[in-house]
Model the fold of this input.
Amino acid sequence: MKKKILFGALVLAVAVITAPMFAAFEAHVINVTAKIENALKVNTDDIDFGTVFPQEHLDRPLEIALSASFQEEERVDDVRYIIRQKPKCGITSDGGETLVGPTATGHVSVDPSGNAVIDCGAEPRQLATGEAWGVLPSLCEYISKEADTDVVNDTGMPSFHEPWSVEGDEIVWNDSTGYLSKLGEDFVDNWIIDLAVPCFGGTCGQDWAAFVADINPNVNADDYEGNIEDEHKIFGCDLWVEVTEVSETPI
Done:
């Protein structure tokens, strides 16, 4: 009886020791690949209005289209996207009147007091004498995003508007939305980026209020007079085009 017990214990010991050895004898490799393409084709060339004057009304085109890769892929059909206006940072000289260095998009957040703050991040390079790194005076309030007039699935935004607002501890963006669809044969959106140039406090013409009301009758013209200390400076705004949804082709 004792011999049988010892033999059984020995077999058990061997089984425990050798079990991990079998686990390493077999392996399988699954090859995972993907080709990542942009859904949209966007012209990212700078939109430079150059030197402008109060109450001028200027526009530039912005084409947003389905990319060639998206059009060739049968599995997907449509794209929803937004156009968002964000603050622009840059290196300037001459008291902000000359843009001399790299630029970046400012990050907007809410501080503990409930106020919006803009963070430009670290200086992109060492500053020379007379140079400064920081937020440019905002052009975002004065830029419209006018959608195609022949489609109803895009929402534009007139000049003289706030690009964002603070609600509690969050930034709520005032975006424009766009939609493109292969099945709907809507391959390209031709946006118009429209600049209504502000005047500066104390120097506005008598028809300033009428100028604003003609473009956006839902705002107070006094709220959009520029700060006199920003006269002659370089203004800026970054337009961000972001895809929010891609839908598959219905079966």
Remarks:
- DSSP finds three helices and 14 strands in the chain.
